[in-house]
Design brief:
disordered N terminus, 5 strands, alpha+beta
Length: 134
């Protein structure tokens, strides 16, 4: 089974990765991520692969950006639509860097959001500028 196999990317910590993937089990509040996303958020890749609560990730988001990001994720889940947001995150170099996250929830047959998946990438200069205007 694919779920029984764990892959942790070997990534140099000298330069933060360009993109990372995640899958959040909403009901159990366990977010599993690849090594690239772990390093973007300054977390250990094995911990990220095993699964951490979303609160652990949100604590790594810049305090000024955290409420806006939480609102965007909530709105995405409620409205059942994709989400995109640019924000700052404390990376593996212990520095804030700009990233853009893309995510989307998936519902079960009862209409409950059970999984939220996405990708986080380094933000472009254009995206950073647009975010500063909000």
């Amino acid at each position: 089974m694919l779920n029984d196999v764990l892959f942790v990317a070997e990534i140099s910590e000298a330069a933060p990765p360009e993109a990372g993937f995640f899958s959040w089990d909403v009901g159990d509040n366990i977010l599993r991520a690849d090594g690239a996303l772990a390093l973007l958020f300054g977390l250990h890749p094995r911990d990220a692969a095993a699964g951490l609560s979303i609160e652990v990730y949100m604590e790594r988001v810049h305090p000024e950006d955290r409420p806006r990001l939480a609102r965007k994720i909530r709105d995405s889940i409620v409205a059942d639509r994709p989400q995109q947001e640019t924000y700052r995150v404390l990376n593996s170099l212990n520095e804030y860097s700009w990233v853009t996250g893309y995510g989307r929830g998936f519902r079960n047959e009862l209409g409950d959001t059970v999984r939220y998946v996405g990708i986080v990438v380094h933000a472009s200069e254009e995206a950073r500028g647009a975010d500063l205007q909000h």
